[in-house]
Design brief:
This protein has 320 residues and is of the alpha/beta class. It has an eight-stranded parallel beta sheet. Strands 1-10 form a two-stranded parallel ribbon. Strand 8, helix 7 and strand 9 form a beta-alpha-beta unit. 45% of the residues are buried.
Length: 320
Amino acid sequence: MKKPVEEGTGSRLNEKLVTAGATAEAQKLYAFLLRNYGKKIISGVMTLSSFDETAWLKENTGKEPAIVGLDFMHSNRNYRWYNDKQPIRDAKAYWERNGIPVFCWHWRDPSRKTEGFYTKDTDFDVSKVDDPSSAEYKAIISDIDYIASLFKELQQQKVPVIWRPLHEAAGGWFWWGAKGPAPCKKLYRLMFERLVVYHGLKNLIWVWTREPNDESWYPGDEYVDIVGRDIYKQGDHSSQHTEFAALNKLYGEMKMLAISECGSMPDPDNLLADKAAWSWFMPWYGDFVRKSEHNSLLLWKKVMQSDYVITLDEMPSLKN
């Protein structure tokens, strides 16, 4: 098969994780991503509740994606209807089947004044991250510490995680991006230090979710393993090659690139033709997965059967 490697993608890629002393499982997962980068793309899908979309794909295509997308959106909010540990239980279950868990966090208002995470729904002031004596800073730390407790359980169970915090920050629509680049960058670095150094979490692979013109928001190469891009263009199954090439150049060909969220996924034929070497793709849950205006069932079947696409049944065990 013709390799769709973008020129320069591979020789300069970071071969080690930014976390010193990363767990063996995290290292093996990262090595797997590196090994397939530019040779194949890894299939993924976001879920709302346990395995809803992976099960739908299995029923309708006969295959499941290699990546399951999970969210801490409902955890640590004292919702009586929700089990806070469901996301990590799902991560463990998929890892046991050789799948890869990818986490994001629609981080609800740390002050608990609202349940919002959109800027329009909460006035939580992220700029107070600069003031350790503030109520906002203390609320931020409390939330991060709770998430750390969940990740610790996964680390103890030898489950690595691709971790995508503070996603789409420069868009400004989430509270963590509402006050501009400086507080958001400070928050990302604080989270890294709190999780990795203070809590000793070594099972995380860190992803920065790029937005256009967000160079001043970027936390720094020493805090980022992979760069993701969330792309929502209805009915567009192109390779997004122009964006891939621009990001590859921007990050000095040092970071693997992924379509960390999408509405419409790329057609493998286009990826091959354009040599757009995205590491993985992940349509959002619900209509983005199931409605033909986003992704037709015919395309799903083509994608999941493609030799260029890695599905769950094709995953090796990455357990140590």
